[in-house]
Amino acid sequence: MADLQDDELQTIGELDGIGLPDPFQAGSYQPVSDPGADPVERAHAILAVHPVADGYNGLPWALRHLSWYDLELGESDVETDVPRLHEGHVGMLFGSLHLPEGIDGDRIVAVTLEQLDLVNIVARAHPEGLRLVCTAGQATDAHNCGRIAVLLGPAEAAALGDSLGILRALHTLGLRVLTLSGVSWASEDGLTRFGEEVLREMNRLGVLADLSGASSDTVRRTLAVSRAPVLFTRSASATLRPHPANLSDDLLTRLGAAKGLCMVPLTPDQTGPSVRDVADHLDHVREVAGPDCVGLSGTYDAGTAHPQDLGDTSCYPRLIAELLDRGWSEPDVALLTWGNVQRVLRTADFTARALQERREPSTATIAQADGRSTVR
User: What contacts 190, CB < 8 A, 6 or more positions away?
Assistant: First the structure.
């Protein structure tokens, strides 16, 4: 099947947003806190309405090493449980399916499927606290019912086994975010023709591209090819703190133009050892990419350290209070915590539905795309 034509893509662009009211448009935002109140009190008031959508949580792998746990009662062996999620006003978390080093080959596919199964088991075992979701609307419904929404992903690109059929199967099982790095078709040299076809199929399905840790060439080509917003689930400012996963101002500017999302991690090696350091990165990303393109990524239970006073998922109000002290407006805080992730999910879902009317499931293989001159 031929690639989508420019006029078809323009149609999707024109339709994007229809039927999707934006509570953050100028003049439509309704304040929920008292500007004269203590910043911590204001933070709790804002987060009660606009909770944190946490872009990366390693709980699925952490739980594999526990013989017994109760996340609803509380679990001291991990940094994430239902009481602390509620205390930190976390309304949604991305359940990472990334795997430790040393698992490779066909085992990556199998272990990723085991991770998906484990998350489903955990969610069913904690129905009063957790709810699996696939869309922005489902996440909002879960929050309104007092549950924490769990979105599956990011997973590693190697989990596809170079098969678009496996991509579709993982999507059917709930996967919604895939990291484009560490494979031959998304490497230091950028996306190959097969990599571009994977990305197109992700757009058609509604699977978001995560570019944290991807090469600059992969990032630039993905931004050019993708018809849905992209994510950096664990990236901060390389200008403030050099790190392989942090973004230069050039890439942040490109991300802002593409209306993607940089989710700043709470890790000392990427952002620094204090709450103020994290806030510095959030300030910088907001300034360069724009307030619509910055989010939060706790990276809890991912085997990393955390800045002082941000040791677990209950600590988000301390960070939000710091931002309010710095003069962040309430609408910008609401975008940071909840609104930007909702926009990206809504746009990816709408784009997928539009593309499914124009594009059949791809039958491309890596041998066809990268071994010969034709993609299909």
Answer: 215, 217, 218, 220, 221
